[in-house]
Amino acid sequence: MNQKLYSIIYASISVFIAVMVIYFPQEVLKASQRGLEVWANVVFPSLLPFFIVAELLIAFGVVHFIGVLCEPIMRPLFNVPGVGGFVWTMGMASGYPSGAKFTARLRQEGQLTKTEAERLVTFTNASNPLFIIGAVSIGFFYDHQLGILLAITHYLSNFCVGVCMRFYKYHEKKSYRFQNFSISKAFQQLHLARIKEKRALGKILGDSVTNSIQTLLVIGGFIILFSVLTEIMREIHLAHFFAGGIAILLQLFHLPIEMALPLFTGFFEITIGANEVSQTESSILIKAVFVSIILAFNGFSVQAQVASILAETDIRFAPYFLARILHAVFACFIVILLYVPVYKNQIHSTMVSFMKWEQPPLENIQFLYRIVEQFGFFFTLMALSFYLILLIKQK
Questions:
Q1: HSE-up (13 A, CA, CB side) for residue 154
Q2: Three-class SS of residue 124?
Q3: Would you give the distance in Å from CA 286 to the centre of its chain?
Q4: What's the number of CA atoms in the CB half-sphere (13 Å) around residue 25?
Q5: For the chain, the helix, strand and coil percentages under 3-state DSSP, each to the nearest 5
Q6: Which of 57, 136, 133 lies closest to 90 in space, CA to CA?
Q7: Which of 71, 305, 337, 371 is in Cβ range 3.0-4.6 Å of 97 for a Cys bridge?
Q8: Is the dihedral of CA 221, 222, 228, 232 positive or negative?
Q9: What is the chain's pLDDT, residue by residue, as a tens digit (395 residues)?
């Protein structure tokens, strides 16, 4: 009976979305174009190099090398193997959903148990500094100091999530011997991993490119889909209905109700939600709190991307989702605690640096983000053309 109910629900939702797409063709087209532009201009060119490099590092045993070196750190802190250090670093550098991608890849390689992978994916899927500082802080708020506050809050709260999730299924604790820092053992593991790799160099390079692009195509589909869904919910005023419920909760905590709709939008799509928060009339502290919550929650768009990646393995999605709620709670409190020491005290030092240098370091990040936006489409087009050539050769 439950399965029949699920069938009816899934079919009804699909029919409803199809009807709305037909009823609002202009709005759907604009939302699709907006999602496609974000994917082609920013997401694809910024993630593809990281995905390809990660595939090569795994194939050539570098991840095994890093795993041995990071074992004395990752085990006590997060109760995961040393290879988690690679996923954690790459996830922060490249942004979501890279943490899920690399965790799933290492799980398929057998370097993580199911429980370890579920722990690891909860705190390695984060936003990259380029997006937090370049797009959100400077692009939306025109505020350099806010970027520092949001970045520190985002990564520190994610670290706290990792420490908490080390106790997830703690009774299944795997027996292991504590390893000291040893470069010789790390090189030995690197060599053994490279020897086990039977694919030729050309095959490894080709598989790295094709696997990375296939993952990014799925990610692009989800970005466009949730951009359309968000627009449909606005057109039928469903977003305003749910925002009304959020407004009631905000009133209980004496928070501005004008944040209800941006917060609801941010729960679906991070970029749109953060932009709407920046356009409200609230104080900068209130804006920082809500943007931190949106970044921590990841948005249903990113969560759907993570779910699709994890579906290829036996890693469950539920721990990741619960960790996002925990991340949002940590981010809310940490941004309040750090607001005065990080944001307020940065004003004077930033003015001094502005007087000494014509272009502060944070403006370089903005410049880099603009470069990615301007030339990202051409990079995406060339990569997709190369991908088609590889597919034709394989056939």
A1: 32
A2: coil
A3: 23
A4: 1
A5: 85, 0, 15
A6: 57
A7: 305
A8: positive
A9: 578 888 888 899 899 989 999 999 899 999 899 888 888 887 888 788 888 888 888 888 888 788 778 888 888 889 888 888 888 888 888 888 888 999 998 898 888 899 999 999 999 988 888 788 877 888 788 887 888 899 999 999 999 999 999 888 877 765 555 566 667 777 787 777 778 777 888 888 888 888 889 888 988 888 898 889 888 988 898 888 888 889 998 888 888 899 999 999 999 888 888 888 988 888 899 999 999 999 999 889 899 999 999 998 999 999 999 999 999 999 999 999 999 888 777 544 444 444 344 445 555 666 666 676 677 778 888 888 888 887 887 76
Q: Are 91 and 101 in contact (CB under 8 A)?
A: no
Give the C-alpha separation, 359 to 71, whole Å: 40
Residues 6+ apart with CB under 8 A from 34: 227
- Between CA 311 and CA 226 the distance in angstroms is 19
Cα gap 227→60, rounded to integer Å: 38
Q: What is the pTM of this model?
A: 0.84
- The 10 Å CB-count burial string (b at 16+, else e) for 342-352 is bbeebeeebee
Displacement of CA 366 from its chain's centroid (Å): 19
